[in-house]
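Re-run with default settings, no changes from the original entry. Doing this only to confirm the output is reproducible before filing.
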Amino acid sequence: MKRFLVVAPLCITACREPADGEVGYSSHAIIYGDDTRSELGNHSDPSLRLLPERSVLALLEPIYLHESTESKIAIVAPTAQEAVAICSDEPFALQSSAALCTGVLIDSDLLVTASHCVGLFAKSCERQAWAFGYSLDAEDGQVEFSRGDIYRCRRIAGSAHGAAPGDQYLDYAFVQLDRVVEDNREIVDIAKEAPAVGDPLFVVGTPLGVPAKLDDGARVIESRLEALDYFKLDADAYQGSSGSGVFNQDLSLVGILVRGQMDLSWDQTRACFVSRRIDTGSAELSERASYVASAVSALCVGGWQSKRLCAREGHCGDGHCGVEETGETCGVDCPVLAPLTLGLRQRPIERPNEGCSVGGARDGRAIYTLAGGILLLTVGARFRSRRPTPGPREGPM
């Protein structure tokens, strides 16, 4: 049975600790069967290969962005192995880990991501750095940005996080960028129908904060057609995967990843983390992704001005910085933002201590602590996009 993605919109401003199995607080992921994550730069289909350049953005730590030349910005960040203490032979362990979350471009100045990516990490809007092009080039294995690749957050256009009437649980946020994207970017189409159980999916995101990866082996496990708030799938996602785009075979955006299963276990012999693996996913062991069409419906009913999404055009003075407006043409709606501070003084990278992952860490990431020499990895409600930090930082963020 097909179910069209139109639901009664709801506005949730408060959040609570969800019960086990609820979506919203991202726990961790797991490998289902074979690990089907791969480098997008190696994919033969250009429509998939170019998604990070055109449509998928990474929420980056500005402290890891450094001006390499007058026009280029490079990443100077710990590797995933250094940041999370994963074993060196884990996939992508030696790649830079600079991302907190992922977002997907759905309008010329608007992206969608997980609510906890922007609302629960004490990350003020003006400190967010969203970047196109956070993927590895197949030729040199380096990530470098032009200034035009980096965008600021102008405002949080709308968000929901928590339980809602109708047995719903919501987790999404819309970020308005500081300017209209360049012509070489591509706004994604939003799927109008819910996927059926067993349907194949593509997932693009930043697991463990590393450059964008493609999982082309995911399938729908449960559609939740009665609620149309989120669906379950068996994507190979990790910490840092929150907000990852979940696409159908037509590359229409179906959802964004928001919650998953515990992904890492401790190898006492090697003194590092390894991926947890199971043969197949189930309704109990699966990832959760919020439906984007349902979230957009709520955004439009809430009054958002967008001709593309809401069939509604704004005007100067309506409180929305529209796509045709700038600080010069409508300063009241589009105030000039202060420059983003990049690459504050770096401290030496430290290995995270071993122990339990706890929420509420400075800068929104989890911290591993040593407890009597015995490592325990808690499974409780944690954000996928929280990941261990190499220690306190100086300055903003």
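Residues 354 and 370 are 5 Å apart (CA to CA). The domain at 31-368 is CATH 2.40.10.120 (Thrombin, subunit H).
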